[in-house]
Amino acid sequence: MMYSIPTEWTLDDFETPWNTTLSDTDIEFAADIYPEKEPEPAINLLEILQDVFRDEKEAKKLCRLYERSLVRLGHALGLPTNEDLRKKENYRIILDALFDA
Length: 101
Known about the structure:
The chain is mainly alpha-helical. Helix content is 46%, strand content 0%. The protein has five helices and no strands.
């Protein structure tokens, strides 16, 4: 790619417009500098939490989380937690997912 050069900047009326298209050379150069990364392995947060909290008694530690954190944890698990629900309701949604899965 080449930078835009307006005519006013040159002595012989040379100019180049804005280049908005990548050439094959641009693409090859970028591929050399930024090689594709291997995708990160997906983690199953639900399985991790099930390992951490072996039973509901142990999982009561989740109640120590702030309301917003509990909702975010539910969202990360793909659960229908919601800030409009009471904390107990969000907690129950997460517990049901942990121990009914």
